[in-house]
Design a protein that fits this description.
The chain is of the alpha/beta class. It is 30% helix and 16% strand. An eight-stranded parallel β-barrel has the order 1-2-5-6-7-8-11-12, surrounded by four helices. α7 packs parallel to α9. The termini are far apart.
Length: 337
C-alpha cells in the first residue's frame, strides 16, 4: 500500500521571521551568473509551464487516473516514489487498490498518451512523509541508478525533488548530475519550502544553483509557512501577492534564471494547512513579476518576462474544486509572452 501522503496539514509552521536565513549568509548575494537568453530545461517543457502533482493515493480528493489530469498541466509530477532498504534508492508502487483498480499497464499507457499530447510526466521524490536521504557517494549513486531505472521502466521524463526533511547539496547535486549524464533531456524540478530558499547558502538553494545548467524549474511552496523575508528585507505574510513576489525575487536575484522559477500554491483551501490564495492572486503575482503590473506594496526593480510559471498541489484537489485553479491559472500562464 502506498504511503498516505497529504499536504492537507502543515509540515513546518515557522510562524515568524526566518532569522536563520540572515545568519546563513544574508538574503541578497550578487547575481554574478547572469541570465540565460533561452529558457533552461528539457526542450519538451514549454517556455511558460504549469506543474501539477498527481496523487498516487486517495486522501479524500478526487481520485484520478493520469488520463484524467486536466489538460492545462504541462508537467505532471507523480507523487510519490518510495524509499527502499538501500540508502538513497527509490522505487514506485502504484496504489492500484486505492485508485479504483488502476493497473500498471494502464498507468504506463497513460504516461505515453500524456507525452504524445506534449506533457512531461515525472516522478516526485519525498513529500511530507518522505524518508529518502542522499548523504554520501553510495546513496547518491543508488538514487541516480534507481531513478534512471524508473524512467526506463515507466517512461518518466524526469524527477522532482520534494524532500521536506532536509537534503545535502553536495550529494544531491552529484546524484542529479549523474541522472543528467545518463538522460541528457531529463526534466528536473524542485519543490522546496519557503525557508529552504531564503538564502543562496541554504542547502536546497545551493542544489538548485549547482544544477542550474539543466534544472527545469524550482516551484517553491508558498504555503504551510510562517512570515518570511522578501528580497527587500521586509517581512511578508503568506496568503498575499506580496508574499509570492517578494520571495520569488530572492531566487530571481541570486543566480536562477527566470525560466527556473515558478510559484507553488495549493489548488484549494483543502490542499494545504495554510497559505491558500485565490487563483486571481496567483495571476496578479505572475503579472507583477513578468510585466510589472498587478503588484501589491512590493514591486520588483525589474521584470522577469521569462518566468516559468506556476505549480499546484494537487491536480486531485483541483479536480475536487471543479478545476477552478487550472482553468484560471493555466490559460494565464500559457498567455504570458
Amino acid at each position: 500500500m502506498a504511503r498516505a501522503h497529504s499536504r492537507t496539514f502543515p509540515r513546518k509552521l515557522l510562524g515568524g521571521i526566518a532569522v536563520a536565513a540572515l545568519a546563513a549568509g544574508g538574503l541578497l548575494a550578487a547575481n554574478t551568473a547572469g541570465a540565460a537568453e533561452e529558457p533552461v530545461g528539457a526542450a519538451a517543457v514549454p517556455k511558460h509551464a504549469v506543474t501539477g502533482y498527481w496523487q498516487n493515493f486517495n486522501n479524500g480528493a478526487t481520485v484520478q487516473k493520469l488520463a484524467d489530469v486536466q489538460d492545462d498541466y504541462d508537467i505532471i509530477a507523480v507523487a510519490f516514489a518510495d524509499a527502499t532498504t538501500t540508502p538513497g534508492a527509490v522505487t514506485f508502487n502504484l496504489d492500484s487498490a486505492g485508485l479504483g483498480g488502476y493497473s500498471v499497464d494502464q498507468f504506463k499507457a497513460d504516461i505515453k498518451a500524456k507525452q504524445a499530447a506534449g506533457k512531461s510526466v515525472i516522478i516526485s521524490i519525498g513529500g511530507q512523509n518522505g524518508t529518502v536521504s542522499i548523504s554520501d557517494d553510495a546513496s547518491a549513486n543508488a538514487f541516480a541508478d534507481s531513478v534512471t531505472k524508473l524512467m526506463d521502466e515507466y517512461g518518466f521524463d524526469g524527477v522532482d525533488i520534494d524532500l521536506e526533511n532536509g537534503l545535502n547539496a553536495t550529494y544531491m547535486s552529484k546524484a542529479l548530475k549523474a541522472i543528467h549524464d545518463k538522460k541528457s533531456d531529463v526534466v528536473v524540478t524542485m519543490a522546496p519550502q519557503t525557508i529552504d530558499m531564503q538564502s543562496p547558502q541554504n542547502e536546497y538553494f545551493k542544489t538548485a544553483l549547482a544544477t542550474k545548467d539543466f534544472l527545469t524549474v524550482v516551484n517553491m511552496q508558498y504555503y504551510n509557512s510562517g512570515s518570511m523575508l522578501g528580497c527587500d528585507g521586509k517581512v511578508y505574510s503568506q496568503g498575499s501577492v506580496d508574499f509570492l513576489t517578494a520571495l520569488a525575487c530572492i531566487q530571481l536575484e541570486n543566480g536562477l534564471d527566470p525560466s527556473q522559477v515558478g510559484i507553488g500554491v495549493p489548488a484549494s483551501t483543502r490542499g494545504a494547512g495554510s497559505g491558500y490564495v485565490e487563483p486571481g492572486i496567483v495571476n496578479a503575482a505572475l503579472d507583477c513579476l513578468t510585466k510589472g503590473s498587478g503588484c501589491g506594496s512590493f514591486k520588483p526593480s525589474k521584470t522577469y518576462p521569462g518566468l516559468r510559471g506556476a505549480m499546484t498541489w494537487s491536480t486531485n484537489w483541483d479536480a475536487a474544486n471543479g478545476s477552478a485553479w487550472s482553468k484560471a491559472v493555466g490559460p494565464h500562464v500559457h498567455g504570458l509572452s
